[in-house]
Write a structure and sequence with these properties.
Blueprint (H helix, E strand, L loop, with lengths): L4 H13 L4 H12 L5 H8 L5 H41 L17 H15 L3 E2 L5 E3 H4 L19 E3 L2 E3 L5 H9 L4 E10 L11 E11 L4 H16 L5 E6 L4 E10 L16 E10 L1 H6 L8 E8 H8 L13 H4 L3
Parallel strand pairs: 1-5
Antiparallel strand pairs: 2-4, 3-4, 5-6, 6-10, 7-8, 8-9, 9-10
Bound molecules: phenylalanine (PHE).
Length: 340
């Protein structure tokens, strides 16, 4: 029995040419190289029947056939793998030239903008920024600030009490006490933060608002230092020609006490809608730290003196950004906040 190697080669070449995917390739491999019934295996089985003088030639032809089949299968297998990889790449390719979706950028809250400006101005003047608790004992909120029992500011319609002797602080002046307890003079601190009062919200009131407290205690501090500091602060905040004026006033924790105003930045003092015709805008309270307060925190009032001031950031923000309702600052309406 003779084997037609040439026609087997041709047959294999025809069959392998029509293979298009991994599955038909596997079937073809079985058909030709399968251990039991593969066509190449069949040829090997015929080896025993070949006459011994023809066996060498048969073996050679058999090896050539086997190599031809294996090489053909491997080539097609590589082609299929390549094609699949190309298809995967095409499917998963990202078009980096497409315009992206921009991540929305946040905005600083107007109160934050102003608070940071204020902090920068005072830090340049040698102040450090302090923090204090928003829930305080009545000692810090009142007693240490020389606000005795029975003082109207202690009554619950102003202060939000958490318990009998704990309250949400009604002023940042509490941080004066913490600062003086923590450190010996000379000390210069500002303390921006939230304060709380039992106010009905309206265009100019909110039960939670922001104040900045300032405190400067050292030897030889006078009212002139307070005035110079407030003038310099207002000048830096509003520009060169923003005069400040002081009016006598009363706060239990300062003596003498005053309120300070700055000249209206819209009309420059002639009177307009923003300053309600007076030419001046109220800024806050101030004064020389009361000797009782100094003694309470263990500072000798014979040796040291100091000034303190406090003002609202929200009112300043409302004027600076021309808001006609202070509640806009607390409503968290993105349409408002995105304008800053
Ligand atoms: N704490 C006062 C207020 O809330 C302001 C103030 C601070 C006055 C410091 C004098 C000194 O109105």
């Amino acid at each position: 029995m003779s084997t037609n190697f040439e026609s087997l080669h041709d047959q294999f070449d025809r069959e392998v040419a029509s293979v298009s995917d991994a599955e038909s390739l596997r079937a073809l491999r079985d058909r030709w190289l399968g251990r039991k019934a593969g066509l190449v295996t069949d040829v090997r089985k015929q080896m025993g029947a070949v006459a011994s003088e023809d066996r060498a030639a048969f073996g050679k032809a058999f090896n050539a056939l086997q190599q031809h089949v294996e090489a053909g299968l491997d080539r097609v297998s590589a082609e299929i793998a390549n094609r699949e990889r190309d298809a995967t790449i095409a499917r998963e390719t990202v078009d980096i030239t497409l315009p992206g979706r921009a991540a929305p950028l946040g905005h600083r809250h107007p109160i934050t903008i102003l608070r940071q400006n204020i902090e920068d101005i005072f830090v340049r003047m040698g102040y450090s920024v302090e923090d204090g608790p928003e829930i305080e004992t009545t000692f810090f909120n009142f007693d240490a600030l020389n606000i005795p029992d029975g003082h109207p500011a202690r009554e619950s319609q102003d202060t939000m009490y958490v318990s009998e002797d704990l309250a949400l602080r009604s002023q940042t002046s509490t941080v004066q006490i913490h600062a003086m307890q923590r450190r010996q003079p000379p000390l210069r601190v500002i303390a921006p933060g939230r304060v709380f009062r039992r106010d009905t919200p309206d265009a100019t009131h909110n039960p939670m608002f922001f104040q900045v407290e300032g405190l400067n205690v050292a030897e030889g501090i006078t009212l002139a230092d307070l005035r110079g500091t407030c003038e310099e602060f207002v000048r830096q905040l509003f520009g060169a020609d923003a005069p400040v004026r002081f009016r006598a006033s009363y706060f239990p924790f300062v003596e003498p006490g005053c309120e300070f105003d700055y000249q209206c930045f819209v009309c420059k003092g002639t009177g307009c809608r923003v300053c309600k015709g007076s030419g001046w805008i109220e800024m806050g309270g101030a004064g020389m730290v009361h000797p009782h307060v100094l003694r309470t925190v263990g500072i000798d009032p014979e040796r040291f003196s100091g000034f303190a001031f406090g003002f609202g950031i929200d009112r300043l923000a409302a004027r600076q950004f021309d808001l006609d309702d202070i509640r806009l600052l607390f409503a968290n309406d993105l349409r408002f906040l995105e304008q800053f």
